[in-house]
């Protein structure tokens, strides 16, 4: 599997970035994970012409080519960061590249609860008609007290959270595979469908 892992913040120092970097290394034998920074994307503003900013087109292309997407979000005031919302608005307004794309949401926070409210907020956004992502159900990875979660080599040192992450990622691999087969079957049935006046 090839996954695009989106760092959902423009902060230069982020435990969400560290979490994705760890996942990239830890699951390297199971999947190819490419990290993507959204901090260089322009703030969303409905363009007067049809030109799509180069960085937005690049993100869309990477999403389209990936088997699935992993989004790591911090929590700011019970919601996702404005920079992540802006990136999703660009995708919604232009390519709609997340449509039917398998998505895993993870999040790290310095607090005890992780980014639970932000993850719920992100699920709601990804479920909107113009995004329509396939979000893995009944699963969330919340890394609380993230400031002390990694050692100097970037390894996740909370054993309970490591086990939880392993299980969540295995489920996401399966979810990606099942979703791709479901969509292939859906496309086949749609192609072969005959309307009453054709029979």
TrEMBL record:
GO terms for cellular component: cytosol. Residues 1-146 form the NADPH-dependent FMN reductase-like domain. Gene3D superfamilies: 3.40.50.360. The lineage of its organism: Bacteria, Bacillati, Bacillota, Clostridia, Eubacteriales. GO terms for molecular function: FMN binding; oxidoreductase activity. This is NADPH-dependent FMN reductase. InterPro entries: Flavoprotein-like_sf, FMN_Rdtase-like_dom, NAD(P)H-dep_reductase. Pfam families: FMN_red. It comes from Clostridium saccharoperbutylacetonicum N1-4(HMT).
